[in-house]
Each structure stands twice: as structure tokens, then as C-alpha cells.
Design a protein that fits this description.
By secondary structure, this protein is an alpha+beta fold. 35% of the residues lie in helices and 45% in strands. It starts with a helix and ends with a helix.
């Protein structure tokens, strides 16, 4: 993994956490995303589906923000194969409407081109726990 990819990915994660926890601007994340970025999410989640381009990603992260008002990464590990990175993340999310805290983990397959993220494929440890935290 090039240092550019790692630097971009770590900056993206910091911007994502700041967006969900502090209401930071979307542009903090956007500067690390290719124009044709694709986010894949489990269809069972309230923000499930495929989200394309910056505008699609903006809608995705807004839907995340409608459901979560806090994100904290407690542990992350990175494995790379040139322009692809697998990330194990363990962390906590706080549900906006229920106030419940969710401690969870996930794997993400992330692809890059020219130092920018082109695709996210997250694999959740337990989508049922995610839904339970969000439900009243």
C-alpha cells in the first residue's frame, strides 16, 4: 500500500467520524473520493443499496447521519494489495433517535485509483444488532 493511499484513507476515516460526531462538512470526506466512487451497503439497513458518485455518497452519508450521531473507531487494522485495502474496524456508534450505543466490527474492501477511493464494500459483523440499536 502506498503512503498516499494510507494517508488518504486515514484522513477519510477522520473526516467521516467528524461528520457524524461533530457535524463537520461533507467536503472533508469528498476530497478523498473519486468522482465515480461507489458505496455498497447491505440492503437490510436504512441506508442500504448502492450510492454512486459524490452526490450519491453525499446522500448516503446524510442517511447515515439521520440514523447515527456519533462514530468512534477503537481499533483499525489495514491489509493492502496494491490499490485495494481491507480494513478491520472495531468501534462504537450512537443511534440518533434511541440514544443506544452499538459496539460492533466490520470489514471493508476499499479500492483506490490515483490515491482516491473508488469503491467501498462493507461487510458487517451483525446487521441485526445495527437494526436493533436503531429501533425504538
Amino acid at each position: 500500500m502506498t503512503s498516499d493511499v494510507m494517508t488518504s484513507l486515514q484522513a477519510f476515516y477522520a473526516a467521516e467520524a467528524a461528520y457524524l460526531t461533530e457535524g463537520a462538512a461533507f467536503e472533508g470526506m469528498a476530497r478523498h473520493l473519486a468522482a465515480d466512487v461507489v458505496m455498497h451497503q447491505a440492503s437490510s439497513l436504512p441506508y442500504g443499496g448502492e450510492w454512486h458518485g459524490h452526490e450519491g455518497f453525499r446522500r448516503f452519508i446524510a442517511a447515515m447521519g439521520d440514523n447515527w450521531d456519533g462514530l468512534w473507531f477503537d481499533e483499525q487494522h489495514f491489509v493492502s494489495d496494491q490499490d485495494r485495502v481491507v480494513v478491520f474496524s472495531r468501534g462504537r456508534l450512537r443511534a440518533r433517535h434511541t440514544g443506544r450505543m452499538l459496539e460492533t466490527s466490520l470489514l471493508q474492501w476499499i479500492s483506490f485509483r490515483d490515491g482516491l477511493i473508488t469503491e467501498f464494500r462493507p461487510y458487517y459483523h451483525d446487521t441485526a444488532a445495527v437494526l436493533a440499536a436503531l429501533r425504538s
